[in-house]
TrEMBL record:
Its main location: other. Urate binds at T59, D60, F173, R190, V257, Q258, N284. It is found in: Peroxisome. The lineage of its organism: Eukaryota, Fungi, Dikarya, Basidiomycota, Agaricomycotina. Belongs to the uricase family. This is Uricase. It is an enzyme of class 1 (oxidoreductase). 5-hydroxyisourate binds at D60, F173, R190, V257, Q258, N284. It comes from Ganoderma sinense ZZ0214-1. It holds the Pfam family Uricase. The keyword Oxidoreductase applies.
Length: 325
């Protein structure tokens, strides 16, 4: 049997580690809720090939470390920083683990606005929050300790998913290829709706290897101009890229989902120097005007289309990556 096969890939860890972290600033409370996956690679082959568990940091311990970093990291409120801290901790604490792969999905919690009386802007509550949608922020970090003795190399891809949008005009789909299979009619005005999945990749970053294995290097803040636009600036970047995405969606006179997607990606690359690639996955969520000709009502010519049937499936699926030259 042993001549026929070999272990060509091995990675393990804990999936779906759920954590809510409260950071108290006096009476002002900040929260993040994360779903974390923490996986490792390294000199672990014998655990598969020889049933030798001496190289296995138990997935239970990896879960405990995830909670330990959530408790102790000064970076816990920014998912990119938290993931970098956790990955760095794993590969610097355990020399035989060469790479850590951390995925963080952040769920939305918004402060509840409290009205202050007529004409006054509502105030955000200090410790009460609500879930304002299913959209998530995502972070994937690879921390690579095999790059050198004193440094780690980290590759960061951030993103958002399940951001649902719709616009009721400013979208057409015309002049597409036609043959005997074509039944779709050209339209110069239609509903455009999609559930946006976006990922954006940063140029690799270098982190000094913490000598003590405790990731203490992360106690020094990565702040100021040097951090701007890099993964250390994750919150600002996430807000800016979300804005670009929504603005292009709203303002573009869309010739197709493809053409609008490309404009979104181009603008992100143009305005964010540390981002190297942008990938969108945009399902075309079809809304079809209901045909009412049978009762003598025009609901299908674009200017009279007012009642639409949301189609659950099938949907188009338009994807692309836009990269820096
Ligand atoms: O924007 C679109 N792109 C397509 O590729 C396509 N195909 C289709 O049937 N409708 C659309 N709309």
């Amino acid at each position: 049997m042993s001549e026929l096969s070999y272990l060509s890939h091995a990675r393990y860890g804990k999936d779906k580690v759920r954590v809510l972290r409260v950071v108290r600033d006096g009476a002002w409370h900040n929260i993040v809720e994360y779903n974390v996956t923490a996986l490792v690679e390294g000199d672990i082959d014998v655990s598969y090939t020889k049933a030798d568990n001496s190289v296995v940091v138990a997935t239970d311990s990896i879960k405990n470390i995830t909670y330990y970093i959530a408790k102790t990291s000064p970076h816990v409120l920014v998912p990119e920083r938290f993931a970098l801290h956790l990955g760095t901790h794993l590969v610097s604490k355990y020399a035989h683990l060469k790479k850590a792969f951390i995925t963080v999905e952040q769920l939305r919690w918004q402060r509840i606005p409290i009205s202050q009386g007529p004409g006054q802007t509502p105030k955000e509550h200090s410790h009460a929050f609500y879930r304002d949608g299913d959209e998530k922020r995502t972070v994937e970090v690879e921390v690579d300790a095999s790059a050198g003795k004193d440094k780690l190399v980290a590759r960061v891809t951030s993103g958002l998913k399940d951001l649902l949008v719709i616009k009721t005009t400013g979208s057409a789909f015309e002049s597409f290829f036609r043959d005997e299979y074509t039944t779709l009619v050209e339209v110069n005005d239609r509903i455009f709706s999609t559930s946006i999945d976006l990922t954006y990749t940063f140029a690799p970053i270098s982190i000094p290897k913490p000598a003590d294995g405790e990731g203490k290097v992360f106690e020094a803040p990565f702040a100021g101009d040097a951090a701007k636009g890099t993964p250390w600036d994750g919150d600002a970047l996430a807000a800016a890229l979300r804005n670009i995405t929504l603005e292009v969606f709203a303002l573009d006179e869309s010739a197709s989902v493809q053409a609008t997607l490309y404009k979104m990606g181009q603008r992100i690359i143009a305005e964010n120097q540390h981002i190297t690639t942008v990938t969108y996955s945009l399902p075309n969520k079809h809304y079809v005007p209901v045909d009412m000709k049978y009762i003598g009502v025009d609901n299908t010519t674009p200017k009279n289309a007012e009642v639409f049937l949301p189609l659950a499936h099938p949907s188009g699926l338009i994807t692309a990556t836009v990269s820096r030259k």
